[in-house]
Amino acid sequence: MGIIERKKREKESRRLQILEAAKEVFSSKGYNAATMEEIADAAELSPGTLYIYFKNKEELHTFLSIDMLKHIAEDIEAVAQNDELPGMKLDNLRDVFIAVYEQDPMILISLFHLQAGETLKNLSEEVLETLTFTSGKALSAITSIINEGIKKGDFMDHHPVALADVLWSLFSGVVLWVDSKRLLNNQKDFVKSTLTTAFSMAKKGLKKD
Q1: Which of the 8 DSSP states describes residue 157?
Q2: Helix ranges (DSSP H) in 30-85
Q3: Within 10 Å of residue 49's Cβ, how many Cβ atoms?
Q4: Are 33 and 9 within one domain?
Q5: Rounded-to-integer distance, Cα 45 and Cα 50, Å
Q6: Residues 2 and 47 in one domain
Q7: Is 0.85 surpassed by the pTM of this model?
Q8: Contact 6/48 with Cβ under 8 angstroms?
Q9: 119 neighbors 131 (Cβ within 8 angstroms)
């Protein structure tokens, strides 16, 4: 292995080390309370090293969100490409959303806050473009499921992009709303059951009369 290749691998390894440490700190303390110094300590690095790889906390957190979005997009694309009927694909899409939430609810919740908040203004153009592209892949895969259902006469004939936006909004809305209720009332986590109910209603609403 040459020097250039070795340095490239070392840089990527260090970057992944920082991301794993950041994930632990964000998940345990929440985005607002976490600091770059705590992340550096968890990664066993100096704070200055973190700023070599990430401009600020917002950018570091955004890369975690992008990694999650990539995972979501890949899973939705797999659902869209299988040979099942459109209605069954909606059930599989629901299962993807539930599985992603159960895997890492804190990062997912932070992702939805990121997409709707002021943090986007603090991101570099390159990072923002990556986030936009990855979000677009996920929504495009959902749109293809809807479009297939429309063409087969199973779903109502409305704009597939608008219907895909509704499903994504349903996902994010349920996660954020139920989580806020859980925090305020110290209740059991009802995201899975609420998403199941919401998708059952959405599936009935999408069916062509």
Answers
A1: -
A2: 36-43, 47-53, 57-81
A3: 14
A4: yes
A5: 8
A6: yes
A7: no
A8: no
A9: no
